[in-house]
Write a structure and sequence with these properties.
- It contains 7 helices and 7 strands; from the N terminus they run ααββββαβαβαβαα.
- The chain has 204 residues and is an alpha+beta fold.
- Helix 3 crosses helix 4.
């Protein structure tokens, strides 16, 4: 079983029964009857779904990066993993954020399995988020654990808090980036990364 993240002393533990009752309260607030047949199991299902959607709180994404490989025949060029699909939730409206992350780094003397980069994205995405923070968390996690010469992270995502409520603007996506080390300091390195992920195509 995945270890649970340490809880802040200010947080009051909530058990499953309380969580399910909170869902019933929201159903009543919306004008529904939680006791009708179609909604009887909804609180259970919602709590189960929350366990999946917010599984990132149970793990430290940095743990995924601690198993590295050093037998790479001296490889020290850029490594890029693009189009990592993710789902997250806006911490302001609890609405879905659906997008893709693109990661690049310049290794020093070790590399990490590419699936671990995807797991880092999921580890941070499966929490309440804002896209800017998510982008920075992924980049700094890779920098802190792998100690590469540079890291680049670009995220392109659609926010349902904008498309399904408020201004109701569809077909709009948001792009954020975090460049560290050589990716920030060297324009050629940054341009190579953006070329690899085909940044121009993200808007098409």
């Amino acid at each position: 079983m995945a270890k649970r993240a340490k809880k802040s002393p200010a947080l009051v533990p909530v058990d499953r029964a309380q969580a399910e009752e909170a869902v019933r309260t929201l159903l009543r607030w919306a004008g529904e009857d939680p006791s009708r047949e179609g909604l009887l199991d909804t609180p259970k299902r919602v709590v189960d779904a929350y366990g999946d959607w917010f599984a990132g709180y149970a793990n430290d994404p940095a743990d995924y990066l601690r198993r590295t490989f050093e037998e790479v025949a001296g490889y020290d060029e850029m490594i890029v993993l693009r189009d990592i699909e993710f789902e997250s939730y806006c911490e302001h409206h609890m609405a879905p954020i659906i997008g893709r992350a693109h990661i690049g780094y310049l290794p020093t003397d070790k590399v990490v399995g590419i699936s671990k980069l995807a797991r880092v994205v999921d580890g941070f995405a499966r929490r309440f988020q804002v896209q800017e923070k998510l982008t920075a968390q992924i980049a700094h996690c890779i920098e802190d654990v792998l100690k590469p010469r540079g890291v680049g992270v670009v995220i392109d995502a659609v926010h349902q808090c904008m498309t399904t409520r408020g201004v109701h603007k569809r077909g709009v996506s948001m792009i954020t980036s975090q460049m560290l080390g050589d990716f920030r300091e060297d324009a050629r390195t940054r341009a190579e990364f953006l070329r690899f992920i085909d940044i121009d195509s993200l808007r098409r």
